[in-house]
Amino acid sequence: MTSKSGNQPHTDEAPATLLADTHDQLSQQSIDEQAALWFTRQHSQQMSSQQRQAFKQWVADKDNQQAYQAIAEIWHSCEALPRPTIVPIEKRKSSLWRPFIHTTAALCLVAVLYLPYSHLPALLMDNMTLATSNFPKEMTLADGSKVFLNRNTQVRVSYVQTQRRLWLDKGEAYFKVKPNPYRPFYVHADERLIKVVGTEFEVSRYQNNQISVAVHEGIVEVKATEKSPATYLYAGSQAISQSTDNQFVISSVNADSVGSWRFGQLHFFEQPLGDVITKLKPYLDINVHISSADVAKIKVSGVANINDAKSFITALPLLLPVNVIFTDKNNVLIINK
């Protein structure tokens, strides 16, 4: 796209070479993908006169015209929806959408799943919600950044021209951010804010309102609130905030262990037992209670298999001066020896 339509004088005929190039490019795509691409160009209002001429030739074909109209109907239906499309990514399917054109929500969802990101209208491409239930998943965002969602996690995405914002509503996510100093990348977790330019890090949001940020690579800026002073984290550092009233508490972690849940493990190095139990909780089918604040402060080092986290709990007496007592089949109490 060489210029905006308002700055380009209108011509009735486009250069033959440009039209040929456009035709060659589109001929490699399905009609539905071509329609999505043309609709995206039209919606951006940045088509050159040559592109408008190429579009006239393309849409003159009856099949192309029907495909374009189908995309337009989907788009107008999606615009009427009250919230961004929710994409349950563990159920992504490459299903055809056109036979379901009168089912608005289904069409909007399938349009997101079926079409390549570069062919989607900007609002669909840059505004959506990602969710997982029982299994972690990886997702590539519109700018090429990657987000790895742990189980039972929800992240909302909102991209605009000058910034990239995501909201971690629940769970845990690992981010691999494409560098762009002119378009900073923000992650909101409750009132707390994480800002990056290009890095790899994870953000965890626990049910007790604790937020944890750990950096694998690069630099991350964290704030307790939007107006709070910034704290900077580097590779191998972690910040934990217990509530929106508290500043982040900084500690060291093994940079290589950040996001290790993606590979089925949780790594702990000299971490307080209370923090370890908090991180293990999503993987446990029992309730774990700690008898006192002193016990919660005992430092723990080790590796837990997230598919058998209960075994890590029962093995704690071998690692620490504690006893693990099952008060019933669903509840465990950890006490001093």
Automatic annotation (TrEMBL):
> Which Gene3D superfamilies does the annotation name?
2.60.120.1440, 3.55.50.30
Query: A Pfam family name for this chain?
Result: DUF4880
**Which residue stretches, if any, does this entry annotate as coiled coil?**
none
- Every copy of the FecR protein domain together lies at 138-221
What are the record keywords, sorted? Membrane, Transmembrane, Transmembrane helix
Residue ranges annotated as transmembrane are: 100-117
Q: Can the keyword Lipoprotein be found in this entry's annotation?
A: no
Region feature (Disordered): 1-25
What are the FecR N-terminal domain coordinates in residue numbering? 33-73
State the source organism's domain of life.
Bacteria
Q: What would be an example GO MF term here? A: sigma factor antagonist activity
What protein does this entry describe? FecR-like transcriptional regulator
Q: Which organism is it from?
A: Proteus mirabilis (strain HI4320)
Taxonomic lineage of this organism?
Bacteria, Pseudomonadati, Pseudomonadota, Gammaproteobacteria, Enterobacterales
